[in-house]
Amino acid sequence: MLTGAPSSHMNSSISSTEGIFPPSRFGSFESPGVGASSSFSRPDVDISEYDETDLLAISWNQDYGCFAAGTSHGFRIYNCEPFKETFRRDLKSGGFKIVEMLFRCNILALVGAAANSSYPPNKVLIWDDHQSRCIGEFTFRSEVRGVKLRRDRIVVVLEHKIYVYNFMDLKLLHQIETLANPRGLCCLSHHSNTFVLACPGLHKGQVRVEHFGLNVTKLINAHDSQIACFTLTMDGLLLATSSAKGTLIRIFNTMDGSRLQEVRRGVDRAEINSIALSPNVQWLAASSDKGTVHIFSLRVRVSGEDSVTHPSSPQGPAMIHQNSSTSLDPLVSANTGANPNSSLSFMRGVLPKYFSSEWSFAQFHLPENTQFIVAFGSQNSVIIVGMDGSFYKCSFDPVQGGEMLQQEYVRFLKFETKAR
Q: Under a CB-based contact definition with an 8 Å cutoff, are residues 354 and 342 in contact?
C-alpha cells in the first residue's frame, strides 16, 4: 500500500543546508560563472587522453537533450545536439555510479560508487553546481539503486522500497514497497500538471503505476516473467514495458491498464537495456545486448489533425480509443508505412503466435554485448550512447524504414571502459 510519511523512519536519515530553492530559481549548466569547489575541480580539457577513466553509468536528462556519465573519477555532462561536453567534475576520492540531472539546471543527484572513499553507495547527494555545494543529503541503511528527479520531487529507489520526497523541504511524502528491484527500475512523468510514477509491483511481471494527482493506483500485469525495462510518456499516460525475455514490448494505457499495442524485438532471448518513446508518440525505440536498435511504428496516439485541433491541450496529442486493442488488427499508416504483419492478417489463427506481433520498422546495428541507451533526436533521428564510451546519431526513413543511416559518431571516452 502507498503510505504517507511516518513520524520517523528508521531506514534513512536526511540532512540539508539552508538554501533549498524552488525549481524556478535553479540556474542553468550552460550559464557562465559556474564555480568549482575543493571537492569537485575543473580539470584540463584533454584529461581523458591521459588518465585511465572507467565509465560506471550513463543516463539521460528528462527531455533527452543531454546525458550524464558517471566515471571512476567523477561525472561529466554532455549535450546531444550538437554533441559537446558541457562540463565535468573530477575528484580524487572516487567516482559515481548514479548521476541524475534535472533537465538542464544546476541541480544533480549523485550516488557514489563502491570505491568512492567520500561518498558511499548508500548516500544520495543533492548537489548544486552553481553554488558548488551539497544542499541536501539522504543516507540509507542499504545501497541506493536509483534516483529520479522532478522539479517538485526527489525519488530514491532501494532494492525493496521507493521513497518520494518533496524537493522544497526534503520532507518524506510517500513510501512504496516493491518486488526485488536490483536495477533500480522507476520512471516519472515530467509534465507540471501530472505526477505519475511507475515501478515494479509486488508480483513478477507486474508494474505499479501511481497517479499521485488523482490518488489512483493501477497495477498492470504486463508480462509473465520479470520486468526488465519500462518507460513513460512525458505526461505519464502511456507505459511501454519489456520483460527479462526481451522478445516483446507492450504499450499500456496507465489510466485503465489496458494493453494498446504489442511489438516484437525478435524471437531469441535478449536483454533490453533501454526503451524510448518519441515526443509525438509515433515511434518507439529499443536497444538490447544483441547489438541492434529497433524502431517500431506506434498506433496508440494520433498526432496530425487532433494536435492541430487542440493545440492548447496540456496532455499533448489525444489518445486513440481502441477498446479492442488487439495487435492482430491490420494497420496501414500513410505517414509511417505498412505494419509489417498486416499482409499476414488473412492467416490469423494459423501462424505461430509471434507472427501476431508487429516487427520493427527500422534498425541500426551496434557492437554486441555492450549496454546502450537510446533516445529520439530531431527530424527522425535517434541518439545512442554506449557503455563503451561511444555516441551515435543516426536517422531513419519515416516512410520506407529499413537500415538507419549513421550521421555522427564520437568516442567521448578515449580508453576502454567497463560497465558496473
A: no
